[in-house]
Amino acid sequence: MKLRLKSILIYCLSFIFVALLALPSLAQTEEDCLTCHDEALRKNIEGSIHGAAGLSCLDCHQDLRGVKEFPHAEKLEPARCESCHSDLLPEWQKSIHSRTASLGFGPVRCFDCHGGHEVKPKTDPDSKVYPLNLPQTCERCHLGQVTTPRGQDFIRQYQGSIHFRALEKAGLTISANCSHCHGSHDILSIEDPASKTSRRQIIHTCGQCHVGIERDYLEGVHGKDYVKGIKDVPVCIDCHQEHNILSPLDTRSSVYATRIAGVCSRCHDDQAIARQYGLLTARYKTYAETYHGTASRYGDIRVANCASCHGYHDIRPSSDPKSSIHPANIPQTCGRCHPGASRRFAEGKVHLMPDQVEIPKYRVSYLVKTIYIALIVVIISAFLLFIAADLGRRLLGGQRHG
Fold first, then answer.
1. Rounded to an integer, what distance in angstroms lies between the CA atom of residue 19 and that of residue 42?
2. In 90-232, which ranges are E strands?
3. Residue 78 dihedral angles phi and psi, to the nearest 5°
4. How far is CA 90 from its chain centroid?
5. DSSP state of 83
6. What domain count does the chain have?
7. CA distance readout (Å), 17 to 13, 14, 22
8. What is the DSSP string of 390-401?
């Protein structure tokens, strides 16, 4: 009997001892935390997505689990978000944000973008990563002192773009913001072929919103070369720019009517590109010498430019029956500006090169142009001589009467 009582006593003492050891852990509740941390923190947590999910302080601040004395050390380890969000950790580890030591500061952590205790779902208008708020979140680094070499330029260019105006002014949450183009957790350097903004991926990145345009581009001559992996083929950003994308109706836009010829000529007048890919050169020069080119240089937006004839995204060679400059389609293409255009329009030559003037059907055009220029020179010269002679006569007549 005594032995049995002794065993029960030992068991009870052991239980009490273990319970006493566990007291520090049991005491670590949110109420204990809030004896030091103010009420504002409680409201932040309760209003957050974590508070709604019932998470406690210790779920994020796991290094407090072993602490026996409070107040705890002033500096805690960063919250280990990956303990719950393990699927996003590999994306962040590969991203450029995890490797920012070369820029003079530590890695960009979850709370830098999502916030600390006040984390809200991305669909919440108060969230730091809500579409309308995301540019301001990114600006905190990329427009501040901590930034990439050209980060400030890019942010300011984006702030003037059609995408930002649609987002900020019109409140269109579907308009492109930083994460639509660069990604969220998996942001890579533009030099990385896997980056959403690399030349190999940018077509598909823009195509997330511009679905029809991506399809047209891939069916055109540029898109087919892009699929082949030709590095010099123009992609979206070559014509529309990167961050400073403006409406085609904006006079500052790179694809405004009077600027398109200059944009196209960057490739089509490049001698190295022309030699490598067998392209015809002097496209801009031969266009600029036409009535269309002359009128365009003087600011007339009604006259034909490269896109008026060749198309915008689905540009095809003239040998393609679907091409807007295929001989069978020329009357329709020219007819958009010249109603009633006949098949004889297809006999004309827009980009007339000097070595083509001996071809009989082009000789007349060349002769007419030459005579026209000569007549202008003769008429203006005669007009100037007449003015000079009349002025001289008046001066001499005045001296005689004086």
1. 29
2. none
3. -60, 145
4. 25
5. G
6. 3
7. 6, 5, 9
8. HHHHHHHHHHHH
Q: What is the pTM of this model?
A: 0.76
Q: At what angle do helices 134-142 and 151-159 cross, to 10 degrees?
A: 150
Claim to verify: residue 261 and residue 338 sit in the same structural domain: yes
- What secondary structure letter does DSSP report for 77? P
Q: Is residue 166 part of a domain?
A: no
Sequence-ordered strand ranges (E) for 114-166: none
Residue 234 token pair: 């123009």
| Confidence class for position 290, pLDDT limits 50, 70, 90 | confident
346: exposed, middle or buried (Cβ count in 10 Å: 0-12, 13-18, 19+): middle
The residue written with tokens 């923190």 in the block is 41
pLDDT number for residue 59? 86
Q: Please tell me whether residues 302 and 368 are part of one structural domain.
A: no
HSE, CB side, 13 Å, CA atoms: give it for residue 265: 14
> Sign (positive/negative) of CA torsion 108, 109, 110, 116?
negative
Give tens-digit pLDDT for 116-149: 899 999 999 999 999 999 999 999 888 876 666 6
Q: How many angstroms separate the CA atoms of 83 and 80, rounded?
A: 6
Domain contains 230: no
Extract the tokens encoding 265: 């000529």
Q: Are residues 340 and 370 both part of a single domain?
A: no
The answer to whether residues 343 and 368 belong to one domain is no
**Same-domain status, 316 and 373:** no
Half-sphere exposure of residue 22: CA atoms within 13 angstroms, side-chain side: 7
Weakest-pLDDT range from 5-19, 83-97, 321-335: 5-19
Which residues span the domain enclosing 54?
Answer: 28-73
* Mean pLDDT across 250-278: 93
> Rounded mean pLDDT of 77-81?
85
What is the Cα 32 distance to its own chain's centre? Answer: 48
Q: Average pLDDT, stretch 172-186?
A: 95
Mean pLDDT for the chain overall:
85
208 three-state secondary structure: coil
What's the CA gap between 292 and 351, in Å, rounded? 11
Q: How confident is the model at residue 152 (pLDDT cuts 50, 70, 90)?
A: confident
CA atoms of 291 and 277, how far apart (whole Å): 29
CA distance 55 to 231: 50
